Prior knowledge:
Blueprint: H1 11-20, H2 28-38, H3 41-50, H4 54-63, H5 70-99, E1 105-106, H6 108-115, E2 127-131, H7 137-146, E3 150-151, H8 162-168, E4 170-176, E5 182-188, H9 205-211, H10 225-238, H11 251-259, H12 264-274, H13 277-290, H14 297-303, H15 308-318, H16 330-339, H17 344-351, H18 355-362, H19 367-381
Parallel strand pairs: 2-5
Antiparallel strand pairs: 1-2, 3-4, 4-5
Amino acid sequence: MHRLFDFTKKEEYRLMLDMAKEIHAAGESEDIIRRFGEIDLEKLYAVCHEHELDGVVGSYALSLGISLPEEWAAEYERQQKHLTFLREKAKEICALMDENGIPMVILKNGGIMIGLMEDAAKCPMEDIDSLVRKSDFYKAHAILVANGFEFKFRSEFEAEKLDEAYRDGATEYYIVTPEGEKMWFELAWRAVAGRWIRPDLEPDTDGFIRRSYTPERTKAHVLSPEDNLLQVCIHTAKHSYVRAPGLRLHMDVDRIVAHTTIDWDLFVEKVRQAHVKTSTYLSLYIPSVLFGTPVPQTVLDALRPRNAEHLMDLLAKAGLPHPMQRKFSKMQFLRFQTSLYDSKQDIFRVIYPGKEWMNERYCCTGFFSRVWHTICRLFDLVGIRKKK
């Protein structure tokens, strides 16, 4: 086992991971009950809370008849109430969109919560991410605003300029929950976007929506198993595997693999078409070690890059524990990021996707305008951004 996973030798981490995972072997519950009774519960709760797994682990404990400490029980109830509100509000929004002829997909943890999980507390998240067709984007924005959502970006690097947000592919909104917390909602027309994928190879949003399904008693769409797994693998890479929200980030892969039937040949082909073999390998391999996620070895072998050990060494230096700590310097981040691309050509095409794409995205007016925006884009990709 690579030294990246040395921290799992500590019982508080090992027990947290064993309780958080989706698939448990026969007789494993008895062993977990025993270990839960012997461990320092303050240590266990601290690491669960740090990695946003206190609700997940608490839910499994309660399913085994284990009583939670008072502080933990109160936090579990708070999370369950808040996340249930997010789930029902997401369903409500999807119903509104459906009434207006707009199919809306709920992505990532939200889609997993609606399509695969019963206890909302097992799906910790800070926001709901949605996907609509590009042609429906402005109409969906108007529906959200008309129903009480405030158009507002969380990042200081984004400005509330709708046309610019449209070109970029996403907007953000919030409403205030009955408990006084903000519920954030992202509306996007780009199915997959980020540093790890070339814009010209991003999966087709309309195709994602056509292949999606609607769980019973809801108008919310959830991605097909293969599209869902691809999307969360790229999302995991976006968080560099080791940054916030911590180990719960890797649970998306574990849940999709555990609760759906994956056509692995089709999935691997989608990964190859998107040129994200390297980043997807890590997104699958890490949960296979942490949670025992049953990813076929043939799939890992097909995706494993030549620099796999080098990437694992870089991640080990950053460390999976303590996700809120700074993980990379600017140069370390650049080194790690460039190591994730499948080829040098992919690096170039991420920086400069092409004349037509640059003109559309940045409203370039000529050669020098494209050069300037390419330079700005390069700085943005390495994490050097200016406030708007």
